[in-house]
Amino acid sequence: xxxxxxxxxxxxxxxxxxxxxxxxxxxxxxxxxxxxxxxxxxxxxxxxxxxxxxxxxxxxxxxxxxxxxxxxxxxxxxxxxxxxxxxxxxxxxxxxxxxxxxxxxxxxxxxxxxxxxxxxxxxxxxxxxxxxxxxxxxxxxxxxxxxxxxxxxxxxxxxxxxxxxxxxxxxxxxxxxxxxxxxxxxxxxxxxxxxxxxxxxxxxxxxxxxxxxxxxxxxxxxxxxx
Length: 226
What we know:
This protein is mostly helical and 226 residues long. It has one domain. The protein has helices at residues 5-28, 36-49, 60-82, 99-119, 125-139, 142-151, 156-182, 190-202, 204-216; strands at residues 153-154, 220-221. Strands 1-2 form a two-stranded antiparallel ribbon. Helix 2 (36-49) packs antiparallel against helix 5 and helix 5 (125-139) packs parallel to helix 8.
């Protein structure tokens, strides 16, 4: 994958979101408003997508970023679930989205159907897992958005963390547009485009209230779910 300003900005936004979250856990020392299930989904996304770490070397930058995503996401999960006093503040009752049933299973099923449609029964396991990771990433943020909706009042660093996660995906859409215009042999992946746009749309409501709160300088509060 070639580098451009939008891809670099997207990667840095993703890294910054992780830094903000780890900083928030370290400073506030509680996990209120944070979804472990979202991070479990993202960890599964990274592990299944980056299996090419063992088969193909693209660049030092590429390899380091993949390892960073896997390790940092694992650290977030470990910190919230097992490191005290943070672990005792994690509210499992609020983070109750059935992610294995309503995210992992459907994403895998759709990935199998997609691969069968494209390649018949000669499905490569790495290709199947890569496609699965694309579908799963599109909805991985759902448990986190549901938790925020239940808490309603969003702590500042938590809001910034989710904002940078959304910005990362939006910047990657700009990266795809840029590459399609400037790379003559750029290969289009319409499944990736669809899932990227879907993931970005999930953030729209959050973005609206995030910028509204920043403009007014008040507390960031989400409306009550109807």
